[in-house]
Design a protein that fits this description.
The complex is a heterodimer of chains A (about 325) and B (about 200). In chain A, about 25% of the residues lie in helices and about 20% in strands. Chain A has about 325 residues and is α+β, with helices and mostly antiparallel strands. Chain A has a domain of about 100 residues: Enolase-like, domain 1. In chain A, the strands form three sheets. In chain A, strands 4-5-8-6-7 form a five-stranded antiparallel beta sheet. In chain A, a hairpin with a 2-residue loop joins strand 4 and strand 5. In chain A, helix 4 packs antiparallel against helix 8 and helix 9 runs antiparallel to helix 10. Chain A starts with a strand and ends with a helix. Chain B folds into two domains: about 110 residues, Ubiquitin-like (UB roll) (Roll); about 70 residues, Orthogonal Bundle (DNA polymerase, domain 1), CATH 1.10.150. In chain B, about 35% of the residues lie in helices and about 10% in strands. A five-stranded mixed beta sheet of chain B has the order 2-1-5-3-4. Chain B is globular. The chains are: A alpha+beta (about 325), B alpha+beta (about 200). Chains A and B meet through strand 1, helix 1 and helix 5 of A and strand 4, helix 5 and helix 6 of B.
């Protein structure tokens, strides 16, 4: 591991000017530093900044401090009641040890699990070494993207929380070298295009301060449905974040986003449009699932995810609908 | 949280490995106050530029570390607390589980620097010295919840948290909240039984 200096931040205002790489829980960054994939010369630990770890309802918004731990949000009773999609996306991610370490802001910035990215220099990888090529294109692509890939990169965005937030139209409050700004979570991650090493639109030194989630008629009738190789502590083969606004069996509005199959959190308005204004049954839910994967471009070993994902979306829609009937 | 067990000496200094002792011939453990000793150790250990003050199993620790050091390596290599094990060193196996300010964490993915001014509890500090085992340790023995034992310290520390968090409603919930601890010997049946048993004993205790 390359040498680095380590400093603890005392206030958010002090972060942007330092030029240091921000570290929060460290479950991605320190991991990748051990693999010599990340090589920062200076680390600034932001978890020592007070006042950014709260979880609170403010009017119609649910506000998460970026430094709240995944485990705190995953079991927050009021969040669970108002928007189970959010708590489920966290509870079904990682292990309790990692959820105690990882922050809600840092979680959004976790990097791909593509083995060609993680496992070293003898594999070409445009994300790790721009211009070197993509080993996954000709390699084992069971875990790679069916949506949003490019010639340069088909690495999957591995997170769950961001997928749930995209479905909920969440917004980030940021503080960077050029001041404060807000950004939709849906606009945070870039498509790989020909520069897969640039994963987000954040500027160097820019920090996520808060995550704001609007909770209106959409929220309670929601679920994060995650399909894995094993039942717990695994990344998604495919996941579906679904939130519905329903009245007497008819869908007023639907939100659907996919995880585990795309290069970034993947909202599917085509699938949402299938449901809007129509009386819901399993057949319609399956139609939405098919619409969600209509644009999928499978590789050699991940074609099964089209059917798996279609069914996962349909199941998630039915689970969310059932929750709309709760008192 | 009982991270500070009763009846332990107020302060310890980090032990020296043979390697460190060889590098710092002038360093005489036990003669200098902890801070001065730590400063000398910094000269003896190249790259140990960061002063770290924390409590480990109720004892004050004042030492110098290389910023790259993981909490696991600090515990094992500098403090010679070898109960927490290095399995994968990437947060995937759970063998390194310790409690940091009362919460279970993967010490291999925790920068030692992050333990500044915080409390660490390892398997060595779980039961008071000279007394009975912690109910979880005893339950692991009673239920044959191990074979080779390599994962056991991490399993026990995770299991104690699992009970304290209230995640032992039934066997399925225990399996879910213990999924971060891998046992290559496959002693899972015994582990779940031990946790169910210890959960009862811990509530009564």
């Amino acid at each position: 591991m390359q040498r680095f200096t380590y400093t603890q931040a005392r206030s958010a205002e002090a972060v942007p000017g330092t030029g240091a790489r921000i570290i929060a829980g460290g479950t991605t960054l320190y991991d990748l530093m051990k693999l010599d994939i990340e090589t920062p010369a200076a680390l600034l630990d932001v978890t020592t900044i007070p006042g950014l770890d709260g979880i609170a309802f403010a009017g119609d918004e649910l506000v998460f401090g970026a430094l709240a731990r995944m485990s705190d949000a995953a079991e927050h009773p009021e969040v669970l009641r108002r928007c189970p999609l959010l708590t489920e996306s966290l509870a079904k991610a990682a292990s309790q040890q990692l959820r105690n370490m990882a922050t809600l802001g840092g979680n959004l910035l976790q990097r791909t699990r593509c083995p060609y990215f993680r496992n070293g220099a003898h594999y070409p990888c445009n994300k790790r070494a721009p211009g070197s090529g993509c080993a996954a294109r000709e390699g084992l692509d069971r875990g790679h993207a069916l949506l949003g890939g490019s010639e340069a990169c088909i690495a999957v965005y591995p997170g769950d929380w961001a997928v749930a937030l995209v479905a909920m139209d969440a917004t980030l409050d940021l503080l960077g070298p050029r001041g404060a700004r807000s950004l939709k979570v849906a606009a945070l991650h870039r498509l790989p295009g020909d520069a897969p090493q640039q994963e987000t639109v954040l500027e160097p030194g820019e920090m996520i301060l808060r995550i704001r989630v609007p909770i209106g008629p959409i929220g309670r009738a929601s679920t994060y449905h995650k399909i894995r190789d094993r039942e717990s502590y695994a990344f998604a083969l495919v996941s579906a974040a679904v939130a519905l606004d329903m009245e007497q069996g008819v869908v007023r509005e639907a939100r659907i986003a996919l995880g585990g199959v795309a290069t970034r959190p993947w909202r599917v308005p085509e699938a949402e449009a299938v449901l809007a204004g129509r009386r819901l049954d399993r057949a319609l839910a399956l139609e939405a699932g098919r619409a969600a994967f209509a644009a999928a471009r499978p590789g050699r070993h991940n074609g099964f995810k089209v059917m798996l994902g279609t069914e996962a979306v349909a199941d998630a829609v039915m689970i969310a609908a059932e929750r709309s009937q709760r008192p | 949280m009982d991270d500070d067990p009763a009846g332990v000496p107020p302060a310890i200094s980090p032990c020296l490995t043979r390697r460190e002792a060889g590098l710092g011939a002038a360093l005489v453990a036990g003669l200098a106050p902890a801070a001065a000793q730590a400063a000398q150790a910094a000269q003896a250990t190249p790259g140990a530029t960061l002063r770290l003050v924390l409590r480990v199993n109720g004892k004050a620790v004042d030492t110098m570390v290389d910023p790259r050091t993981s909490l696991l390596d600090l515990l094992r290599e500098q403090l010679h607390l070898t109960g927490a094990k290095k399995g994968c060193d990437h947060g995937q196996c759970g063998a390194c589980t310790v409690h940091l300010d009362g919460r279970r964490v993967a010490s291999c993915l925790t920068l030692a620097a992050k333990a500044q001014d915080r409390r660490v509890l390892t398997i060595e500090g779980l039961a008071p010295p000279g007394g009975a085992l912690h109910p979880m340790q005893q339950a692991f023995i009673d239920h044959d919840a191990l074979q080779c034992g390599y994962c056991t310290p991490g399993q026990v520390m995770a299991a104690v948290s699992c009970v304290r968090e209230g995640h032992t409603t039934d066997a399925a919930q225990i399996r879910e909240y213990m999924s971060g601890n891998i046992c290559r010997c496959g002693a899972y049946t015994g582990i779940v039984a031990a946790i169910q048993d210890a959960a009862t004993r811990m509530r009564e205790g």
